[in-house]
Amino acid sequence: MRAAVFWGCRILTSQYAYEMSVRETFPRFNVELVDLSEVNCCGDPVKSVNNLAASYLAARVVAVATKTGLEDLLLPCNRCHFVISEAKNALGKDRKASKRISNALREEGLEYNPNIRIWHVIDFLHDFVGLDNVKRGVQKPFASLKLATHVGCQIIRYSDLRRVDDAENPRKLDELVGVLGADTVDYAEKLDCCGANLMYSHPDSALSLAGTKLNALQNLAVDGLVVSCPDCGLMFDYKQKDAGTIVGAKLSLPVVYYTQLLGLALGIQKEKLGLHLNQSPVDQLLTKISD
Amino acid sequence: MSLTDLMSMAKPNLGSREKILAKLGGEELVNCFQCVKCTSGCTALKLLELKPHEIIRLVNLGFVDELACSDTIWTCATCLKCIERCPQKASPYHVIMALRNLAIEKEANAPEGYLKAVSRILEIGIAEAVQEVVTRKMEIFNRGSLKLPEIAYPKEGFRTAFMKILEEK
């Protein structure tokens, strides 16, 4: 099976571990990922500035993906997944905006076709590849590992758009971790936002949100936190030290992308999964896994 | 400016509601009955005192220009819980986004981060600049040394089309 992949900005410019681990793990399930060429930002920061321009950006991503002739588009970033889902929905209803955007795309020889199927890493693996197939690929199941999951906000809300999982009780990421042999915990702060979007305007508050959640998790004595969004990865992994400073706590919680964890279970070398790039103390987790 | 300052002695202008309704493309606002579910679950309530139900009420009362000039509308973390939980589909998230768009049109103060992102998209097509990363062992990596493919940025035609849409009224 071949699918187009749109990485968005954050993954391509700093969250390399996510990109590497998706590129390594997907072919193991016979999925060939086709990169889009000369593609733009999905439109997320532009939504606050000019909604029509944001919809144009999202539609252009879909149009570039359509040009590949493939029927499926993978969006590993939660924010891109939301912005593109919402633009597709809005353009279906607003004929005037849709016409204006189609004209702009035509200037570049592009055509907007809303029929391409969009996927996130979580629903692609859970619903398309299937839990059984994921489980079958596992070479090294993780016994006695206790992990927490954080699915993020924008792939589960709002339900009127077709979303990846339930808005109030998302289970798919937990199930995906479960088939690797690890246990997942339910915790009160599970749906709390990482705060990434506030980095544009209120960075201290953003870090405070991330730090508060990490501190709560640390008190639960979990072995690590599993994420699958580059913004959440940025806040919980890259910015963990800063977040700890803001909330006045010594944070030391391993944070990994689901695809990194999956790659380890599939027997892929940790450097290929970018595990040397995580800023949080993932060695604690790796030691427990190799024991 | 803070909303409280902007609201002292402010006079409602019911006509200003239309600016928001036009951006929402529907009558999503009128059904709010102030149940405060949005505010009780709001990510930005505790730290930044964002109260989405208050924003909906103020728009309905005609205090749109005051809101567009306030700092409050820039405190939303876009977690989308308000829209998910609203029993009337009043969607504070969309109202806040419409107010932000209005603030930009009025050239009111907007956080620099958003404007920087837009100018970077105009410049290179994406919203972030490529970064080197330093590992836990202090080694430096970039896309090249990680054997990741080079980024193929969009060409001039994209910038022209994007600029044209941004400048439209």
Distance between the termini of chain A: 35 Å
Q: How many helices of chain B?
A: 10
Distance between the termini of chain B: 26 Å
Q: Pairing-aware structural class of the strands and helices of chain B?
A: mainly alpha
Show the largest interface. Answer: A-B, 66 and 62 residues
Average pLDDT of chain B works out at: 93
The helical percent of chain A reads 40-55%
Shape of chain A, please? globular
Instruction: Return the CATH topology of the largest domain in chain A.
Output: Rossmann fold
Q: What's the architecture of the largest domain in chain B, going by CATH?
A: Orthogonal Bundle
Strand order of the largest sheet of chain A: 2-1-3-4
Oligomeric form: heterodimer
Gyration radius of chain A, in Å: 19 Å
- Weakly predicted, low-confidence segments of chain A: none
How does this structure look, described?
The complex is a heterodimer of chains A (291) and B (169). Chain A is an alpha/beta fold and 291 residues long. Chain A folds into 2 domains: 2-119, Glutathione S-transferase Yfyf (Class Pi), Chain A, domain 2 (Up-down Bundle), CATH 1.20.1050; 131-290, 3-Layer(aba) Sandwich (Rossmann fold), CATH 3.40.50. Helices cover 46% and strands 10% of the residues of chain A. Chain A is built from 12 helices and 8 strands. Chain A has a 4-stranded parallel β-sheet. In chain A, helix 3 (51-67) packs across helix 4 (78-93) and helix 6 runs parallel beside helix 7 (172-178). Chain B has a two-stranded antiparallel ribbon. In chain B, helix 2 (17-24) packs across helix 8 (92-105) and helix 5 (52-61) packs across helix 8 (92-105). Chain B is an all-alpha fold and 169 residues long. In chain B, strand 1 and strand 2 form a beta hairpin. At the A-B interface, helix 1, helix 2, helix 3, helix 5 and helix 8 of A face helix 7, helix 8, helix 9 and helix 10 of B.
